[in-house]
Specification:
Radius of gyration: 17 Å
CATH superfamily: Ribokinase
Number of strands: 11
CATH architecture: 3-Layer(aba) Sandwich
Strand content: 15-25%
Shape: globular
Number of helices: 9
CATH class: Alpha Beta
Order of helices and strands: EHEEHEHEEEHEHHEEEHHH
Distance between the termini: 19 Å
Number of domains: 1
Structural class: alpha/beta
Length: 270
């Protein structure tokens, strides 16, 4: 029987990120996927001007209460971008009441990159992300998000010791497994992960261009691979290669600056 996944994050209507990549990717990997949107944006916030934002905080508890009455439950809850601190309590309510016994609670603390918080987000979001990270089965931050969650200084130039400290500090917060993205060594870029016992790392040649939304795509592939039984290192390798292949397909088209053409890679993904 197909596992049921609930993803809680925004809907950026245009721009290939958040729910608009999570839903098709997880569905294509074989999982029934439902959504609990935290907000609706006309586009993502990376490079577009005058985008619209509709906060759905008031609607979320109504949806949750309806699901409770219907007896709806999920095998996985996967959170992404959250723009209102009130929503973290709703997320914990969902985890407590709508997650099947033995289910997975996975947090992608999508809130920052390159040393800065995303547009409109502040310390209250960091605190909320830390709160849900403390009870998660997996947390999937980039280097910036990991440094903010653990109160470590953000360092653009990384050392192995710095990367390991971020991972171990996230484990100390309460996460059972950590998958850290944006790990760099020289001209290589990739991810590192720990199950609380060992740290594994996958690095690949760094692409010259970067695109918005690749973190959301990476997280969705990682989650699908977890459910499909891949070990941690194989999972990292496959997810990193998926992003690289998506970037390479997108690079020749300068008009497609807002995200990657992951669909071409997804249709042949196994």
């Amino acid at each position: 029987m197909s596992k049921k996944i609930l993803t809680i994050q925004d809907i950026s209507c245009y721009g290939q990120c958040s729910t608009t990549v999570a839903l098709p990717i997880l569905s294509a990997l074989g999982f029934e996927t439902a959504i609990l949107p935290s907000a609706v944006l006309s586009t993502h916030t990376g490079g577009f001007k005058d985008f619209t934002v509709l906060d759905l905080t008031d609607e979320m508890p109504k949806i949750i209460d309806h699901w409770k009455k219907e007896g709806i439950k999920f095998d996985v809850i996967y959170t992404g971008y959250i723009g209102n601190k009130v929503q973290f309590d709703y997320i914990l309510d969902v985890k407590e009441n709508l997650l099947n016994e033995g289910g997975l609670f996975i947090v992608d603390p999508a809130m920052a990159d390159h040393g800065n918080m995303y547009w409109g987000l502040g310390e209250d979001i960091v605190n909320g992300m830390r709160k849900i990270t403390s009870v998660c089965d997996y947390v999937l931050p980039n280097i910036t998000e990991a440094s903010f969650l653990t109160n470590n200084e953000y360092k653009e130039v990384q050392t192995k010791e710095y990367q390991d400290k971020l991972i171990n500090d996230l484990l100390k917060i309460g996460a059972k497994n950590v998958i850290l993205t944006g790990v760099e060594e020289g001209k290589e870029l990739g991810a590192a992960a720990s199950d609380g016992k060992n740290i594994v790392k996958v690095l690949k040649k760094k692409e010259e261009k970067s695109y918005h939304g690749t973190g959301d795509i990476f997280s969705s592939i990682i989650i699908g691979n977890i459910l499909n039984g891949y070990d941690l290192k194989t999972n990292l390798d496959k997810a990193c290669q998926f992003i690289i292949d998506s970037i390479k397909i997108t690079n020749p088209d300068p008009s497609h600056w807002y995200g990657v053409k992951y669909e071409e890679v997804l249709k042949n993904y196994k």
